[in-house]
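Annex B. Sample input.
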Amino acid sequence: MTPERKFYRNGFQHIFQISVDRGLIFYTDEDCIVFFTILCSMAVKYRVRIVAVCIMKNHFHILVQFVLKDNMESFLNALCSVFARKYNFRYNRKGKLFRKPYGNAPKYGDDIYGCLIYIYNNPIPKKARETAVAYRWNFLAYMDSRNPFSTPLNNTSDITLLKQRFSMVERIHSSGKYIDYAVLDSLKEGLNDEQYLQLLDHIVSVFNVIDYSLIQSKWKSRESLCEMLGLVKGLEYDLNEDLSREDYRNYERMNVLVRKAGFNLSRRRFDSEDADPSQISRLRGMAVYSLNPSDVELAKYFHTGEYARR
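Annex B, continued. Sample output.
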């Protein structure tokens, strides 16, 4: 039986949710973008205030303020179910995507600021990036910039196509919809690598509903917060979080490896029913030979269930 969740009216909640088998969910930028636009759309629909987000490989963190407890349940159910439905269709998989129940911890007073530090610094122990602000998917870089990971638009001859895609993003947002995989495929069609990075920045900036005012009230600027983030780890001990010593760089290296082997990570992940077991076995062998990942990393990347059974 799930214990009664602690809830304080108008208080903050640190929400943590991990994949059902602890395997990877967010392989690509596309996975993160689709999740983020659904998250922002649901936040508007359910009138919740989001003050921090961090999307990791197999889990996510959000710091949210709810007026009513029912809003918390409705918001999380809608977010996870809508994303799971889009994700399952994309990757030809079935069943639950996230483990239930989700984790939550009420935050108030100085605990709120400690939680902000923890969420923004979440990529650092896993070596996803060297600094928190360099990690796109905690959205800290978007606090005072609309294009932190790309160069601004210029007057080149091929800019018309990109402007058309920007307008499409804005129309989707203004209509109250989110960007799913099929829409994202059409948005990025024909764009080069730099234009694609500009598109990602534009989508995040248009949909972003993160309220950065808590950072501004406590640290005055992003630079001051980043200085603090460089001094502390922000560990949180009141959640039963996965603290295994994975190196996220190995996941990115495995992504490169499987693309070279002919897999399209935009169309398949490794628990698909139509996956060739012999090909998966060969890829695992290539990963072990080339990268020497841990058993935990292999289990999570290929969804073997070994980690969960332990």
